[in-house]
Design brief:
alpha+beta, YaeB-like fold, five-stranded mixed beta sheet, 3 helices, 30% helix
């Protein structure tokens, strides 16, 4: 799948090139990069649903239409899914959020 990022900070964290103030530990950022890699490697969102470790699920209430996957026990990646004209799914990473 194709991955896009809502902002430069999320993209920098994924590429390991963010140089601003780091609000997250290196362990969280490493897990984030690993999870982004899993998203990129998946051929479709159907495959994401089959991976128990990602805990792929749709969100509710004010986040209807968004989805999340687990980074670790505390953090989740929230994203939206779009499909381009060639039926290729594009994931836009919107936030790395603390669920607790």
């Amino acid at each position: 799948m194709t991955i896009t990022f809502r902002n430069k900070q999320l993209e920098g964290w994924a590429k390991g090139s963010y140089s601003g103030k780091q609000p997250l530990t290196e362990l969280v950022l490493k897990a984030y990069r690993k999870t982004i890699g899993k998203l990129q490697a998946a051929p479709s969102t159907v495959e994401l649903g089959q991976s128990k470790s990602l805990d792929f699920h749709p969100l509710k209430r004010d986040l209807v239409g968004k989805f999340a996957v687990r980074v670790n026990m505390q953090y989740r990646i929230v994203f939206s899914i779009q499909t381009d004209t060639n039926e290729i799914e594009i994931i836009e990473v919107e936030q790395l959020t603390d669920y607790h």
